[in-house]
Amino acid sequence: MWKKCSLRTRFFLPLGIMFVAALLIGAVSLQLFVPEQLSDESAPAARSARVVADALNSALRTSANPQATLDAFAQALGTSEAIRFQPDGASHPPPRVEVQTPIGRVPRWFVDLLTIPEVGASFPVRIEGKQVGEIIFSPDLSADIFEKWIGFVAITFSVVALTLLTGTIAYFTSGAVLRPLQDLGEGLTRMRGGDYKQLIPPSGPPEIRRSAEEANELARTLCRLSQDNRSLLRRIVSLQDDERRDMARELHDELGPLLFGIRAKAVALLEALPHGNLQLAASAEGILQSVEALQQANRRILDRLRPLYIQDLGLEKSIETLLQYARAQAPGLKLVSHIDGRLNAIEGLLSQTVYRVIQESITNVLRHARARSVTVEASMKAAELIVEVSDDGIGLPKDSVFGRGLTGMQERARALSGTLELVREDGRTVVRCLLPVGDSALG
Ligand SMILES: Nc1ncnc2c1ncn2[C@@H]1O[C@H](COP(=O)(O)OP(=O)(O)OP(=O)(O)O)[C@@H](O)[C@H]1O
Ligand SMILES: [Mg+2]
């Protein structure tokens, strides 16, 4: 439960508990200490009442006319509320000794809460040994209770004001902490997504600011590493291309003429053979067929090794040639293509990557998909080049992993800060490659 609480709740919950606890402690203290305090405060007055009663009784004992003395005494007391004389039989039943409280100025519940002690008292008044009345001591506690009430209200207001003040400070402090923490979290999420450009604004308390600065430093390092990584990939890819080109040249310049020579010689041998030498003729025919098969294989390997036509024909035409070749290989396959004419403007690694992605995807369709139709799309949207090859084949096997073909494509895409994915969408297998067309991506 506590784990799920937000930072603000974690601030406010203890504050609220402290507020209630302060009120409860106040109420309990009032209950515990006020009765004793009230008893102590009215004790001197009670003692005075006893002294008055004793003095009256001794005066009555020595007086010639005790009744007249008593009347004079009662008159002298007048309307004093705290100490008064109550003649026997003046009221029925005899009045209870009561404490006067300031109801009206102080709420009832507060007076009830205090549990007012029995501080009142009565002392008998006798004439010739016979009780004729009582001196009643009934103290007025209004002022004391009002004083307690004022104290209680003052403490309550102080606690409320303090709680409000602390709450407001906690609210704004947590806001000042949360905002930079949120920025930090968003920044780290951006970094996880590979965006290292937008730095985290270092704000808030020093601890969080330091974390933001550390995270920014991390972003810079990651940015550097990913740039290094990309340029390494680019180097690998272009080295690969160079190697392929060299191999293609070797095959074309060395093996090609040799094969041509063998073929020419086989033809010459066939023509020179005397008629009727069937065994030699069959052998020469066999050599001729093998050489032709080798020449075809050589051409196929050459086609795979280098996109021969990009520089001469432009990317659009090169892709069309590639597709024609695929059509020739799989006559039953319906092959539709939409190639953006603007692609002819791109060159270098970017154009080679587009070509290779389409080439490898088509090869994969022919090898794995058992598809009836394939769609090849290459378009430019804003600053992005989108290559999509989709087929209606059997789809990816469950445990499908990227082999050399797709891994190579992915590396090529990453080298240009792009992405490559192989997914199944709406019953079609889709290879989607997104390549940014920026200055860094070109050439
Ligand atoms: N269009 C597709 N339809 C069905 N499966 C596919 C398709 N494209 C790729 N695959 C699956 O993805 C796997 C990986 O493809 P990838 O091109 O990386 O390797 P490969 O074609 O098996 O071998 P190579 O390294 O020679 O290209 C394939 O083995 C295949 O199972
Ligand atoms: Mg493949």
The figure for the number of domains is 3
| Spatial extent as radius of gyration | 53 Å
Terminal CA distance reads: 58 Å
What's the count of strands?
8
Secondary-structure-derived class: alpha+beta
Strand order of the largest sheet: 4-5-6-8-7
Query: What's the overall average pLDDT, rounded?
Result: 86
Strand content: 5-15%
Oligomer: single chain
Are there runs of 5+ residues with pLDDT below 50, and where? Answer: 91-98
Large-scale geometry: rod-shaped
Approximately how much helix is present in the residues? Answer: 55-70%
What's the main sheet like? 5 strands, mixed
Question: Would you summarize the structure shown here?
Answer:
The chain is of the alpha+beta class. The chain has helices at 7-62, 66-77, 108-114, 142-192, 206-272, 278-305, 310-313, 315-329, 348-369, 404-415, and strands at residues 83-87, 121-127, 130-137, 334-339, 373-381, 384-391, 419-425, 428-436. The protein is built from ten helices and eight strands.
Explain what the structure shows.
With 443 residues, the chain is an alpha+beta fold. It has three domains: 2-166, no CATH class; 197-306; 312-443, Histidine kinase-like ATPase, C-terminal domain (Heat Shock Protein 90). It has helices spanning 7-62, 66-77, 108-114, 142-192, 206-272, 278-305, 310-313, 315-329, 348-369, 404-415, and strands at residues 83-87, 121-127, 130-137, 334-339, 373-381, 384-391, 419-425, 428-436. The strands form two sheets. It has a five-stranded mixed sheet with strand order 4-5-6-8-7. A hairpin with a 2-residue loop joins strand 7 and strand 8. Helix 4 runs parallel beside helix 5 (206-272). The protein is rod-shaped. It starts with 6 loop residues before the first helix and ends in a 7-residue tail after the last strand. The model is unreliable at 91-98 (pLDDT under 50). The structure holds adenosine-5'-triphosphate and magnesium ion.
